[in-house]
Amino acid sequence: MLTRPPQRTFTTGDKLMISELCEALLAAHRRHGIDISQDLLPGLPREAIEAETAWFPSRLPDDLIALYGWRNGQPEDAWNSQNVLWFRDMQFTSLQRARDEYVSMMDSYGLDNDPASEGIDLRMCFPFASFNGGWYVVPCEGPRLDSRFPFPVVSVFQGISIYFDSIETMLRTCVDWRVASSWSGDDWELPEHLEMEIWRRYNQGRR
Fold this sequence. Notes:
- By secondary structure, this protein is α+β, with helices and mostly antiparallel strands.
- It has one domain (about 15-200): 3-Layer(aba) Sandwich (SMI1/KNR4-like).
- Helix content is about 35%, strand content about 15%.
């Protein structure tokens, strides 16, 4: 049986909590015979993370530091990776790839982004997960769409909206999704009503 840390409420910076949830997500994959651990880069210390993201115009919040302290994402995109760590439909990207993803996001969605009217400044959003012209980002500074959530996970794909209330609730949701899913050998299968039930278990935002 999988064990999960007790849930906390919209706080940030608990490195052990994030690491334990990430390990629970890997364990949920292994229950289906999929071992992603060898496809992930080793985690980095804070100093290395800050050096790798010196190009980014804001400081990363502690939950992103904790996530990359656990593992440094995947070095190749999903099409070129044997096993993929998905946060639903976006792949956990390495810090090295994140810079290219940021440029791609700013060259598309960022061109017409108006923080005053949209409630988010994409220049201050760090893309930690991506796939096929879509991104999960964390707004690190400025407006964040919903004042209840200091560092929400925002989906930038066919619009811009909060997808998870935080990195923590994203991980909790993804763990339960994987436990409840079946693996066909090519794709994950989960009834839509059950997917939404699990999402509501941990999130209050506007998915």
